[in-house]
Design goal:
Blueprint (H helix, E strand, L loop, with lengths): L1 H12 L9 H8 L1 E6 L8 E2 L5 E2 L1 H12 L4 E6 L5 H6 L5 E2 L7 H4 L2 E3 L4 E2 L2 E6 L15 E4 L4 H12 L8 E3 L2 H9 L5 E5 H8 L5 E5 L9 E2 L2 E3 L3 H16 L2 H10 L15
Parallel strand pairs: 1-4, 1-5, 9-10, 9-11
Antiparallel strand pairs: 2-3, 6-14, 7-13, 8-11, 8-12
Length: about 270
């Protein structure tokens, strides 16, 4: 009897877990929507000439805040390779940072309806002669740290029966990878097609080639939530649908990507 009493007392004294937390209610009551991202992923989120954090995700987060009743957006710059752990540590309410929905990530988080296309591409120098992934044999290749493109490069090597020069390199910032390519230390950089196209528009010496395969399915950019935050995720999904229907999402995509991808995005969360 005493043992049972002690167990009950200890349980009552433990901090409330995220499993019992009402994140949607907490966001509305605090008046703040904190979302995790990593600055330096243009045009999703990056620092402008005034050192201000701007980008597609910032605008999307701002619009979501408005539709939650005037909640203030609060983007939180973090290390992308540990972003999911930071979410569970309580550093932010959700991940809104250009995240590609993948099977591995789905083991730890639940995804929103897609709010952007996330097809992959390969950035190469125009004078490299590389026009397809099959031509990467013996080349130095890389991808962003913690991104699905690392696994895609591994799958592409198997598909085309090629071997890269050394291990697949990873970079925490796209800008560092771009500099490495220009200095001749890198032959190809894999990332999302839209982010690479945005960079290629600012540089005449690089080009982007498609990076697709039957070895992975269609890719989408989704927001990520703790497994326990289903009511919060449901509310955000409805906002995404509303933003699609009233043209807001298409307008933001035109602003940051030069075209709309809304027609490619299903009203269904990626699952495995």
């Amino acid at each position: 009897m005493l043992k049972k009493f002690i167990i009950t007392l200890v349980a009552c004294l433990l901090p409330v877990s995220f499993a019992t937390a009402d994140t949607l209610g907490d966001v509305k009551s605090s008046g703040k929507l904190v979302f995790g991202l990593e600055a330096g992923y243009k045009p999703f989120e990056f620092l402008d000439e005034n050192n201000k954090l701007v980008g597609y995700d910032i605008d999307v987060g701002t619009e979501i805040g408005k539709r939650l009743g005037g909640v203030t957006p609060s983007p939180q710059d973090t290390n992308w390779s540990t972003v999911i752990q930071s979410l569970y540590n309580g550093d932010f309410d959700l991940i809104l940072g250009g995240m590609t929905a993948t099977k591995e990530r789905y083991k730890r988080v639940n995804f929103s309806y897609p709010y952007m296309d996330a097809s992959s591409g390969l950035l190469v120098m125009k004078n490299s002669g590389i026009t397809s992934p099959s031509m990467l044999g013996g080349k130095v290749v890389s991808a962003g740290a913690g991104t699905p493109q690392i696994n895609q490069l591994e799958l592409a090597a198997k598909e085309h029966s090629i071997s890269y020069k050394g291990d697949i390199k990873t970079f925490d910032k796209d800008e560092v990878a771009y500099a490495a390519m220009r200095s001749g230390r890198l032959d190809a950089y894999a990332s999302t097609l839209v982010s690479l196209l945005a960079f290629a528009q600012t540089s005449d010496d690089v080009t982007v080639i498609p990076f697709t395969s039957n070895m992975w399915k269609a890719e989408y950019t989704s927001m990520a939530f703790r497994k326990e935050d289903e009511s919060f995720r449901s509310a955000i999904n409805q906002i995404i649908v509303d933003m699609k229907n009233d043209g807001t999402l298409a307008s933001l995509q035109q602003k940051w990507f030069g075209q709309s991808f809304v027609d490619l995005l299903p009203n269904e969360a990626p699952t495995w």
